[in-house]
Amino acid sequence: MSIRLLPFRTGRFKIPGMGGLGRRTVWLGLAALLFFISVGVSVTVGALQYRHQMRLERNGMWMTSQASLEAARFSAALSQYLVGQAPAWAVSERFEIFYSRIRLLESVPNEHGGAAVDMLERSLPELMLRLDALDADLTAVLGGDSSMAQRLLRDFNELDGRLNELTRALHRQAQHALDRSANWLSGPYWLLLGSLLGLLLSTGLLVWLIVVEGRQARANLVKAEAAAESQAEAERMLRTLIGGVPAMIGAFDRDGRFLFLNDALARFHGIREEDAIGRSLAELGLELGGRDLLDWALGSTGPTPQTERRVRNREGSIRTLLITAVAVSGEEGRRGRVVMAALDITERKEAEDRIRHLAEHDPMTDLPNRLLFSARLRARLRQAQAGQGGDFALHLIDLDGFKAVNDGLGHTTGDKLLLAAVERMRGCLRADDLIARMGGDEFAVIQAEARHPAEARRLAERLVRIMAEPFEVDGCQIRSGASIGSALGLRDGQTLELLQQRADMALYRAKADGRSRSVLFDPAMEELRRNQRMLEEDLREALERDQLTLVYQPKFGLLADRMTGCEALLRWHHPIHGAMNPGRFVPAAEEAGMAATLTRNVLGMVCRQIRDWQARGLEVPVAVNISASLFATDQAVQLVREALMVSGVPPRLLQVELTEQVFIRSADAARAALHSLHELGVSVALDDFGTGYSSLGYLQHLDFDVLKIDQGFIQNLGIRDDGAQGNGARGNSLWIVETILRLAHGLGAEVVAEGVETPEQLHLLREIGCDAAQGYLLGRPMPAEAFATLFTAPVGGAVPHAEGRAQDAQPARP
């Protein structure tokens, strides 16, 4: 098994003129030198410290030993004196020597500490006190006082014993120091042996490094040759890659001469690389980039922003290129080369333009949509405010009857009608006018030149006239028409929102006045709008305070000759304006979004009245008209279901009347609503039948229980074509009523004639077999109590009435 050692690497320190091997040799030499210096210093310091400590230990021990020796000599001299064998002066001399030795113990150094030396320092004060006491006793004994001899000997023995104890302690500490020094000297010994072993290993490592460096040098040479080959291969691969990408890439010097270009760039301009190298774009007659882009790149620190430029290719076609350039730094940071890249984004730009066009234009008519129209109108306002565009006018256009055509004849016919209407309107406009489709059958026109209100009126009236003419669609003649509301720029609105709002006010007025007409905004319309809002607030307050009431118009069965039910009619006595016509406040409620609230209120009052009559033993079917706007969703059915559940009224006693507007808004929603109402057990009546555009078409698909013939046909019964009136005469209205009657009976529906006012009308209706009738001849609208009184009476004689004729024309239509 072989082990591969990684080459030893040093830090970033470098010695000039030396390679890796020389640097490693120097570092190893320095390491060995430092090693030997460290060992020598460690041994020397240790030895000095040991000798110093031993000297200190020996000095303390020597002094205590000398003191003990002199104490023995003093004891011998004292004993000889006490037996008369020694003179007093000899004893005194020995005591002085002994005293001096004790005093020397105060000079023992304590630099390194130790328990024995510390004990010596603590004991010295006591020794000195004992020594002074011994001195006094000795003086007395030598003076002839023999009685002090025993005390002298006792004090001396105690002092001698204490001194011997200190001597033994110092001896033990010296012995411990010797043992510790011996152990301490073993460390440097092994350290020295380890250092010598490391030196041998370092020498071997040095030899190994020399061998490894030789092998590494040979390996590096092989790698350098391989890197050169790899670099050449990478260069070939890079050229292949650059040549294969769809982007056009070229390299230039500072003077704009080609240094390199790929195949895509050569194909785009129809040139060859060998012909372009060394020549500038201007010399070749090419438009790519240009000198300005080259200078821009040379003066920038990074790539230039991507810019779009339109460039002609070799075939002469104008293409859109996305171009960027970047300068390449050479030696010493000089920027003398530029690389330019371009991508042909012509197809992408065309796709973006198509997407933008689709986002800003109506897909069917290709007219600007609401988004683009708003932007153009806002820009036109800014120009006019800056005095750059002159006066202009805004016309909002609604096609009349388009919904009926779309529902009755199909969406395909409706789309063709829209296209035909657009072509007609375009024919009335000038080149600088703008027409847009705002949605559905709504259009808008910006009249570029309208210096006077008369010019705006003329264009609007011309549009109304041209749109009133019949359209030929799929071989059918269709009449539509247009209602137009106009406003003058700046004069009628300084902002987009205000101008559109006032043009919309004029359009609303045009519709309210009967459609197929044009109206120019007048400031008085805002006053009407304010009054309308005030009316809405008053109506909202009236609903909250239960100020609305109901009256009931009798409905008579002509075959049974008796009262069969009634129709609930809504009334409002305004606290300021008095009796308010339902034809005014009911549409106001619908426009203010109160249709559901008003309907809930009316249904609640009707159901409570039915329940009250039931409590009195009267089974009275009541018809109530519900707003067409509620049938666009399931709201109408929900309100009826809610009223029946809350009141507990039998569904058979409630009849829902609706007009043709329900089907014009949404035929599918109306069909679903009728089905749901029948499931609830409620009967459904079609009110004002015969006045709409396509009522017969609805009868083919919708299941009605009752058809109420519009009073316009009933009023003409008995009138000849020449205008003469006579008994039994049959005019056109009679034939129409008879046809409706047969049609309804064929569908299984009951027929009710509205607006019966003369005995002759009643006679003719009975003669042709009409089921029921209502009108002033039979009974005017009256309060609930009056109706209950007449409910069981047969038809005949004058019927009491409670209200004047002016208020009886409108049903309770929330």
From TrEMBL:
Domain PAC: 305-357
Domain EAL: 532-795
Domain named GGDEF: residues: 390-523
Keyword Membrane carried by entry: yes
Lineage start: Bacteria, Pseudomonadati, Pseudomonadota, Alphaproteobacteria, Acetobacterales
Keywords: Membrane, Transmembrane, Transmembrane helix
Protein name per the record: Bifunctional diguanylate cyclase/phosphodiesterase
Gene3D superfamilies: 3.30.70.270, EAL domain (3.20.20.450), PAS domain (3.30.450.20)
TM helices/strands, residue ranges: 26-48, 189-211
Keyword Transmembrane helix among record annotations: yes
Residue intervals of the PAS domain: 234-284
